[in-house]
Structures are given as structure tokens and as C-alpha cells.
What we know:
This protein has 143 residues and is of the alpha+beta class.
Amino acid sequence: MNNIDAWVWWLVGAAALGIPLVVTAMPEFGMFAVGAVAAAAAAGFGFGVVAQVLTFVVVSVALIAVVRPIAARHGKQRPELATGVDALKGKQAVVLERVDGAGGRIKLAGEIWSARALDTDHVYEAGEQVDVVDIEGATAVVM
Length: 143
């Protein structure tokens, strides 16, 4: 087997490692495939079998050691997408009927909601803009 054959075999190995990457979605197979491509490059430059295997091992282990923790960290993060009543917190609303610590009505996101003031001493009159601080059941807490 000459050097040209060696790099072809490394590329066949890389392609073979790409199959379980696609089937199982395990990124480690992709990192091994990149290691095999690096070993194919080493074979193409005329390095011996020992250098090719070392290149494969070093590149694969380096990728697993560096890329895998970064990918795991990003995989655990969930996108912050507020839905339901959580999406209404922080929105502005218009007072329809006087809102105080006891209650009142606001128009929030095109719907009429019962509301109460966060500060029980503060009164909001009809037409004023208020900010929704929280939702407690079917009542918006505003300020």
C-alpha cells in the first residue's frame, strides 16, 4: 500500500465515521471523522503510518476535549421565549376604569383585564398608560 492508497483509506474511514454521525446525531463521530481527514492529509504529505495514526488521535482528542464541552454548554441553554401570561409581564396597558389597590380595568394586548395597583396608595385614572408588573390569576398587577 503506497501513500496515495493510505490517504484514500483515511478518507474512506472519515466517510464511514460520518454515517453514524448522521444516523445517531452523536457529534463525537464527526470529530473522529475530522481526525481521519487530518490523517489523510498527513498521508498525502508523505508521513508514515505512525505519524498518520498520531495525527488522527491528536486531532480527534483535541476536538473532543475542546468542542464537546462547548457544545454541551450550548445544548443546555434554553431560548428565553416567554409565552402565556409570562409574555404579558412588562407590557404596557391602558387604564379603562380607575385602577387602585382594590381593583379596576385595563386594556392589555387587545383584551380587557381586571387590574390592581402594585402600590395600594396609588391611583391610575382612565386613559393613563401603566406597566404590567405581574399577573395573579386573572388580575394584572400594574404600576
